[in-house]
Model the fold of this input.
Amino acid sequence: MPHFESSLVVARTLTDVFEFFRQPANLVRVSPPELHMKLVEGPERIELGSRVIIQARRWGVVQRVVSEITSFESDVAFIDEQREGPLKRWKHTHRFETAGTGTRVIDAIDFEPPGGMLGLVVTAAFVERDLKWIFEHRTRVLGELLGAVA
Done:
């Protein structure tokens, strides 16, 4: 199964950073504007069992993604898994750890590309390129919002 991983260190406390990521509205804030991402439905702060519905435009079509928080440990990690959406499988593990005076944010994503006609174009390599682009943008924005650590 394809795997993507990204990490960065920000200049905020572990609790502050975890609380930032608990708010689904912040996903929209850190995503590239080209995705036209919109939070359709979700709690103010996620917890175990929360469902979040996002709408975005990618690959030339508007997509609706329903994710569920399947694991949650405060100030440590949470996992969101796609329940409905364009990919066959999506499991995103968000981990947080103290790194000096800041916090390391680690994102690990396991996914399977879509099937059918879309899967002929949207291959694992295609998805990985998209993820690299998205996380480069996200790293830059998180550095601006939460303070980059050199």
